[in-house]
């Protein structure tokens, strides 16, 4: 979404990675916001991150504590974060305590102190940590509401943005809700023994925002928010007229079946049982792209870079030299304790940084394992696929199926809607020997050869037969007295929306 110069001047960027995207540019100047959440959810870290970001931009900031905890201890707790800069505390950040004002004159005395401090320091941002002790000292709900309204009016007139930290659960009895211009809620949840941090913008007057729950993490740099990919609006459509030439795998038999390759800027699913050759097929796509001068990215969950490059060299694919020149980047992510949107952010950032024209995601199971909420995987994957198309990158993603059975169900992971092309690799057993078969199930907006062909993994890589004659011979023998095996017994053509995906990192 575009932002005009006037709109930018109204905004106060937070400096929290991902949060300004949710807020369409940042907080509104002069507005009052509640930062709500239980103990340990990250409220103080979030507000402190905004404080130091605005101070680093040359603005004056007030941080008012209503607890008996010393400011020295507060700063000590923040020192481990990269955004912390002690020199800013002396020059642009003023730390105050509300305790003496509250004890001497109650809410009126506190309001007077805040008014004078904001004007004296010409503060652009005020943080009050927290509202709990202040509300407890109010003589009545009416007095507390009056204090909040007068504070909001005062700060709006001088253009000072305010963050009020509170740990109260939301409800109609909470007087802060009606006064606040916006509510940012932080939550800490346990799901299947896994801890997730989630952020939601419950209210944001005067501006659109991305609603719903969004994952965030707390690391050395503070909070990083990962907007749900399905909430992001793509700014552009793929320029399909820019490149009509198809993307070849560099395997003559397969490229022939695809009538020259897959369409550019498309997403191709490589389906097959463990060891069927999915990873090698993806590496062929990269090798062919590198041969023609394209930049490439491998994004995997199971093969470490050194192991992957050794595997490629074992079948004659010289990828290591392209890694050394920077034309190929190999990324490895362990799927454990990661989240879908953080993985997607790393993937998209890698594509943009590498300026990749070809991408291999190896594989779908790594994404599935990262899904804290499996029920949203279909919409997530569809959104990610659309984003990759918009980035003009030709993508393959591998997905495991079971060894046997002629039917293939793509509905459980929403694959059929998220991909443009589907290549299916499977086994057939004949006389105690496994034969590898490959077929094309789908190519969007393009003709293709739907026949089955046999393929081989050799020291020169994958080789696909020129015709279906060897497959017909295998099936003919399977129909005779020597045919055997539950593995891939021939049957009807695999149906699109049988086998649930398995988790495994092994792939020939």
UniProtKB/TrEMBL annotation:
Residues 10-239, 245-478 form the KaiC domain. Pfam families: ATPase. It comes from the Bacteria. The keyword Phosphoprotein applies. InterPro entries: AAA+_ATPase, Circadian_clock_KaiC-rel, KaiC, KaiC-like_dom, KaiC_dom, P-loop_NTPase. It is an enzyme of class 2 (transferase). Keywords: Hydrolase, Kinase, Phosphoprotein, Repeat, Transferase. One of its GO terms (molecular function) is protein serine/threonine kinase activity. Residues 482-508 are annotated as: Disordered. Its EC number is 2.7.11.1. PANTHER family: CIRCADIAN CLOCK OSCILLATOR PROTEIN KAIC 1, PTHR42926. This is non-specific serine/threonine protein kinase. It comes from Cystobacter fuscus (strain ATCC 25194 / DSM 2262 / NBRC 100088 / M29). The lineage of its organism: Bacteria, Pseudomonadati, Myxococcota, Myxococcia, Myxococcales.
């Amino acid at each position: 979404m575009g932002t005009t110069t006037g709109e930018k001047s109204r905004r106060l960027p937070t400096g929290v990675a991902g949060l300004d995207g949710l807020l369409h540019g940042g907080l509104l100047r002069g507005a009052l916001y509640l930062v709500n959440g239980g103990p340990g959810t990250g409220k103080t870290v979030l507000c402190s991150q905004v404080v130091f970001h605005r101070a680093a931009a040359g603005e004056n900031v007030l941080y008012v504590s209503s607890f008996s905890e010393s400011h020295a201890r507060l700063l000590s707790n923040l020192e481990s974060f990269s955004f912390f800069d002690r020199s800013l505390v002396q020059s642009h950040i003023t730390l105050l305590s509300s305790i003496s004002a509250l004890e001497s004159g109650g809410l009126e005395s506190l309001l007077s102190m805040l008014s004078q401090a904001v004007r004296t320091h010409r503060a652009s941002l005020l943080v009050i940590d927290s509202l709990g002790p202040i509300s407890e000292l109010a003589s009545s709900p009416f007095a507390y509401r009056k204090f909040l309204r007068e504070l909001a009016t005062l700060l709006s007139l001088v253009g000072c943005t305010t963050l009020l930290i509170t740990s109260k659960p939301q409800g109609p009895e909470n007087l802060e809700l009606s006064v606040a211009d916006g509510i940012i809620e932080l939550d800490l949840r346990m799901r299947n023994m896994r801890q997730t941090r989630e952020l939601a913008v419950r209210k944001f007057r005067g501006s659109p925002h991305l609603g719903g729950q969004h994952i965030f993490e707390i690391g050395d740099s503070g909070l990083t928010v990962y907007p749900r990919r399905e909430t992001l609006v793509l700014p552009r459509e793929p320029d399909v007229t820019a490149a009509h030439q198809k993307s070849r795998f560099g395997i003559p038999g397969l490229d022939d079946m695809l009538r020259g390759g897959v369409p550019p800027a498309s997403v191709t699913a490589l389906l097959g049982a463990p060891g069927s050759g999915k990873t090698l097929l993806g590496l062929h796509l990269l090798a062919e792209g590198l041969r023609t001068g394209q930049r490439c990215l491998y994004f995997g969950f199971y093969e470490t870079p050194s192991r992957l490059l050794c595997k490629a060299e074992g079948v004659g694919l010289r990828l290591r030299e392209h890694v050394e020149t920077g034309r190929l980047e190999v990324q490895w992510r362990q799927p454990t304790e990661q989240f879908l949107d953080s993985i997607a952010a790393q993937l998209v950032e890698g594509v943009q940084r590498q300026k990749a024209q070809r991408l291999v995601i190896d594989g779908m199971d790594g994404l599935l394992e990262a899904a804290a909420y499996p029920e949203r995987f279909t919409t997530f994957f569809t959104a990610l696929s659309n984003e990759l198309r918009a980035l003009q990158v030709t993508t393959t993603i591998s997905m495991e199926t079971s060894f046997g059975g002629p039917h293939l169900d793509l509905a459980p992971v929403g694959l059929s809607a998220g991909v443009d092309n589907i290549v299916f690799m499977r086994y057939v057993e004949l006389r105690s020997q496994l034969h590898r078969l490959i077929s094309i199930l789908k190519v969007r907006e393009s003709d293709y050869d739907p026949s089955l062909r046999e393929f081989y993994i050799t020291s020169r890589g994958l080789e696909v037969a020129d015709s279906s004659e060897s497959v017909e011979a295998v099936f003919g023998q399977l129909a005779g007295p020597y045919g055997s095996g539950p593995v891939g017994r021939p049957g009807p053509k695999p149906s699109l929306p049988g086998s649930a995906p398995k988790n495994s990192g092994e792939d020939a």
